[in-house]
Structure formats: structure tokens, C-alpha cells
Amino acid sequence: MPQLSSFTGLGLMIFLATFLICYRYASPQQGLSRSIGLAMFVVVISVSNQQSYSFISVATTALMFPLLFLLLAVVAYIPYSPRPERVLLRLLARYFRSAEFLLLAAKSEKQAPASWRETFHRHELATLPAKLNVWVAQVDPEVLGAESVRQLPALVESLQALTHRLQELLEARGLPQSPLLVTALTADMQAWRRQVIEDFQRLSADPSYRETRIHSRLDNQLAQLEKHIETHLDGADGDSMSVAEQENIYRLLGAYRGTSLALLDFANVAGNVDWTPWHEERFA
Fold first, then answer.
1. Hey, what CATH class is 84-279 in?
2. Alpha-carbon distance values, 272 to 47, 69, 151, 153, 206 (Å)
3. Where do the structural domains in the chain lie, given as residue ranges?
4. Series of mean pLDDT values for 10-residue runs along the chain (284 residues)
């Protein structure tokens, strides 16, 4: 780096840098950026009374700014925003991610001990509605809208009902089933599970998601599943399937239907909430 030992060199550098910064941020709306740029320039060059120039000093000072910007970028996301509406959105996303994981879990409780991940997500499913209920009381009706805030207790209740239905489904999946019937109904069960998981993923990203065709799709899949169960039960002899296995498959079907209805109820309540202010940036 050159040594600026004369007033001519220093003055020319200051003029060019000042001109470029002011030219780049010339509009009145960019006044803050212009001031910051000029301040950074003065700090970086670190002109002393002797008009000397030290590359080490400049490099050290310049390195401070990337670290500062990195720190600002980190604190913009960590820790999370303490605003109640943002906390509620994060808790809802956690809930549906846990529900999705549990539906994707292939092993039942009867086949193998629950993994630590499954135990964690079961705990999330059971405790998150209560945590949501605590934060509901903290939201500001003036910011989010009084009508939307009045819908939140019903939203938490529908989520609690969905938790109970999912727990019943997980319990029913662990019951012994007829291998013949399971093989015949695998495609129908997987189609229903894919649809519910897709809805969980969309609700996790956006609670306002409400697809008008969800109800018809889930009803059609459940009706088809029930029809296939009736067909196989009517065609099965007494030795191929026990009474307990017949009861278990109907219990599983009831758990599927209960989960579908609870999911639709949550989507309907969530559709009555105006979620737009929840995502807006604002100063406290």
C-alpha cells in the first residue's frame, strides 16, 4: 500500500472517496447510508496528525466491519423474536413437524421400543397445545385484530382435539392386525397418510392454508378404505381373521376418521384468523 505523506495525496484520496460515497447515496432517502459510509471511511483511513498511513491499522479496522455485520445478521435470527405472535407461529410449526414425524414413523410400539426421537415428538404433541394456550393470553388485539384474537382459544382447543385423535391413531397402529388385511389395505392407508402429511407440511409453513378440496379428498379416501375393509371382512372365513383383529381394524379406521375430522376442524378455525399482521415487521 502506498504511503500518503503529502497533503496533495491525502486530499485527493479524501476528495475522491467523499465524492464517490456522496454520489452513490445522493438521494435524500439514502441520508443514513451516506452518513454511515462517510463515517466508515474516516474510521478506516485513521488519519493521524502526522498524516501517516499504516496498512496494519487499516486492515485491522476494516476487519471489524465484517465481524460487526456478521454479528448483526446473527442477532437478527438468534435469539428468536419474543413477540407473542411470532412465538405462537413457531410453536404451531413445531407441532405440525412433530405430527408429521410420528405419522412417518414406520415402527409401532409393539414392534420395537420407541426411539428417543419418537419419544421427543410424542412429548411435543402432548405439551405444545398447553404452551400455545399460555401465549394466546399475551397477544395484542389492537395489533392482530380483535376478531382474530377471539378465534385463538378455539384454535388451541381444535389443536388439543387433534392431539387426542393422533394419540389414538398411534395407539391403534400398535395393535395386532391381520397380515392379509394389512397387505390388501396398504395402498389405501398410504394414500391417506400422504395426504395428511402434506396438509401438516403446509400448515407448518402457513397456518392460513385451507384447501377447499381437503374435506372431499379425505372423505373419499376414508370411504374407499372402509369399503375395502368391508369387502375383505365379508370374504374372509372365520379362521383367517380373529374377532380381535376385526375389532382392531375398525378401531384403526375410526382413528383415521377422527384424525381427519380434527384436522379439518383446525383448518376451518385457522381460516377465520387474519394471519397477515402476524408476519409483519414492527417496532415494539
1. mainly alpha
2. 62, 40, 7, 12, 14
3. 7-75, 84-279
4. 67 88 86 86 74 72 83 71 85 93 66 73 93 90 88 94 93 82 78 86 80 66 74 63 79 87 88 85 62
